[in-house]
Amino acid sequence: MADIKHFDPDRALAQVERLFWENGAAATSIQDVSSSTGLNRSSLYATFGDKRELYRAALRRYLDRRALPAFEALAADGRGLPGVRDFFSALIDYRSSGKYAGWGCLVVNAHGGTERDDPEVSAALDEHHARLRDAFRRALAVAEDAGQLRPGTSLDASAEMLAMLAYGINVRSRAGASADVLHEVAAASIGLLAAPEAQL
Question: Is Transcription given among the entry's keywords (predicted)?
Fold first, then answer.
């Protein structure tokens, strides 16, 4: 087994993140983590703490390195609805193909598990939702200024709707929904917001 002095904590945490992401917190034991990382329990506990603290660290890593950069890119996109469309297209492709296909989103998965009862985890989930919603809100404000939205569209309600659509895509992709169906649903949802004359 590896000694605490002779391993890269960030590399180990990346493996742990993927383990929780693929299998869920409840189904992942410390023995699973030890087997996956090659680290003994004493090394894990000394570096990360118990399973709860390890999960918190993995969730934070996922937020900081996967989720939040995508939200920041959406908020800064500057194209309005085409940026929203491309966000969903990339999300669906990422969830439906490649090495992480069928895993869903670590954060969204946590909403359905007991880990959300941890106040620190709950706060991270709230942060994720707020940042996603606000990124959509900024994109929709650009769309409104560009005349891309139907008159009378509520930016706040529409941003919440798009955030919920993202959650649904994550859940359904984990359940095996086809990418084609998910793309159709995303296109239809965005179409409900678009002005008839908008060029997307």
Answer: yes
pTM score > 0.90 for this model?
yes
At residue 67, does pLDDT exceed 70?
Answer: yes
Tokens of 40: 């003994």
Spell 14-43 as b/e; 16+ CB within 10 A means b: bebbbbbbbebbeebeeeebbeebebeeeb
> What length does the chain have?
200
Closest listed residue to residue 164, CA positions, set 189, 138, 184, 195 = 189
Under a CB-based contact definition with an 8 Å cutoff, are residues 57 and 117 in contact?
Answer: no
Q: At what angle do helices 9-23 and 41-48 cross, to 10 degrees?
A: 100
pLDDT digit string, tens, across residues 157-181: 999 999 999 999 999 999 999 999 9
Q: Is the dihedral of CA 5, 56, 108, 190 positive or negative?
A: negative
Domain ranges (residues) in the chain: 60-193
Residues 6+ apart with CB under 8 A from 162: 84, 133, 136, 140, 189
Q: What is the pLDDT of residue 200?
A: 67
CATH number of 60-193: 1.10.357
Nearest to 153 by CA among 189, 195, 185: 195
